[in-house]
Amino acid sequence: MSELHNREVDPVTGHDTTGHDWNGIKELNTPFPKLVIWALVLTFAYSVIAWVLLPAWPLGRDYTRGLWALDQDEEAVTGYRALETGRQGWLARFTESDLEELRADAGLMAAAYPAAQRLFGDNCAACHGTAGQGGPGFPVLADATWLWSGEPAEIALTIRHGINAEDPETRYAEMPSFDWMETGDLEALAQFVAGLRDGTADAGSPAATLFSENCASCHGEGGEGGLGVGAPSLTDQAVIYGQDAATVLETLRHGRQGVMPAWTARLSPAEINLLALYVAGLDTAGDEAGQ
């Protein structure tokens, strides 16, 4: 009876207090929410059911399979095999060597485009960008400027064997070092090459003679490239490393040798041809997107 008389009830909520007081703030003795209790009960019940039905407990290198014996690895493999089976019909066409004929088949290319886009994203985008826009040290693929050719067969050859790669049939593209030149000549040549891009290079200067004697055999007399030896044009906007005078000077002093890996061990011949056709169309896709 005395306990009832000693109860202190909060006049606002009607709950008992615990008797604790912090600077006039009293703690209520409220009951545990029933919603939380039911949530805990349901969670525990679900966990017990999941332990019984689904893979759950690790057993060293193995695990309990559960009554349903689900295996996501097997499901993934099964799904992949189904996908492979479904695309074999049209993908087999890309084993043909006439890539221009394949490119002319609009229906086939439309069906293959999503797969080609995934191939590019999985194998090329990390270096060349998701849209082939390139970056420092990696050439742009979404334009009409190429070291060898933008024809699908030539692109397929590069994908197949790489550039400066370990493949025995790899292509080679190497810029040698010109550190044997006098510093003044190197600086003048760097300024001349930088001017080729914006049209400010003086064709009658001593630097033009240096260019003709040391660079033209690979890059062309006017620096236009396109000689099929892996030397880029120096007169357009598709610059791999940069074409300001300081960057050109660094290139002249130390040389350049990028590497494009060979993909024969990773991609099938049909996938390489499909990817080559996709890359060959990136400049067209970019033009259409900008219109």
UniProtKB/TrEMBL annotation:
Compositional bias per record (Basic and acidic residues), positions renumbered to this chain: 1-10
Highest taxon above the source species? Bacteria
Query: Does the keyword Transmembrane helix belong to this entry?
Result: yes
- Record keywords, A-Z: Cell inner membrane, Cell membrane, Electron transport, Heme, Hydrogen ion transport, Ion transport, Iron, Membrane, Metal-binding, Oxidoreductase, Repeat, Respiratory chain, Transmembrane, Transmembrane helix, Transport
Q: How is the cofactor bound?
A: Binds 2 heme C groups per subunit.
- Signal peptide range in chain numbering: none
Q: Mind telling me which residue stretches traverse the membrane in this protein?
A: 35-57
Q: Which cofactor does it need?
A: heme c
Amino-acid positions noted as binding heme c 1 in the UniProt annotation, renumbered to this chain:
C124, C127, H128, M260
Q: In which pathway does it act?
A: Energy metabolism; oxidative phosphorylation
Residue positions binding heme c 2 = M175, C215, C218, H219
Q: Where is this region: Disordered?
A: 1-20
- Which molecular function term from Gene Ontology is one that the record holds? iron ion binding
Q: Which InterPro entries match?
A: CcoP_N (IPR032858), CcoP_N_sf (IPR038414), Cyt_c-like_dom (IPR009056), Cyt_c-like_dom_sf (IPR036909), Cyt_C_IC (IPR008168), Cyt_c_oxidase_cbb3_su3 (IPR004678), Cytochrome_c_Oxidase_Subunit (IPR050597)
Q: Where is the Cytochrome c domain?
A: 111-197, 202-283
**Which cellular component appears as one GO term in the record?**
plasma membrane
Record-level GO BP terms: oxidative phosphorylation; proton transmembrane transport
Q: Does Metal-binding appear among the keywords?
A: yes
Recorded hits in SUPFAM superfamilies, A to Z, give:
Cytochrome c
Q: How does it assemble?
A: Component of the cbb3-type cytochrome c oxidase.
Q: What does this protein do?
A: C-type cytochrome. Part of the cbb3-type cytochrome c oxidase complex.
Family of the protein in this entry: Belongs to the CcoP / FixP family.
- The name under which this protein is listed is Cbb3-type cytochrome c oxidase subunit
